[in-house]
Amino acid sequence: MERQTNLNKLFSIVVIILFSVGVVGHIFLKDIMLLLTPIVLLFVNISAIFLLFRFQNKENLKSNIIIMTIILVATLIIEIIGEKYGIIFGDYSYSDVLSYGFLEILNVPIVISINWLIVIVSSTTLATKLTQIKELQALATGIIAVVFDYAMEPVAINLNYWFWNDASGFSTDVIPIQNYIAWFIISSIFSYIIVKSKLKINANFLLYIFFSELFFFQLLNILFKIGVK
Question: How many domains does the chain have?
Answer without folding.
Answer: 1
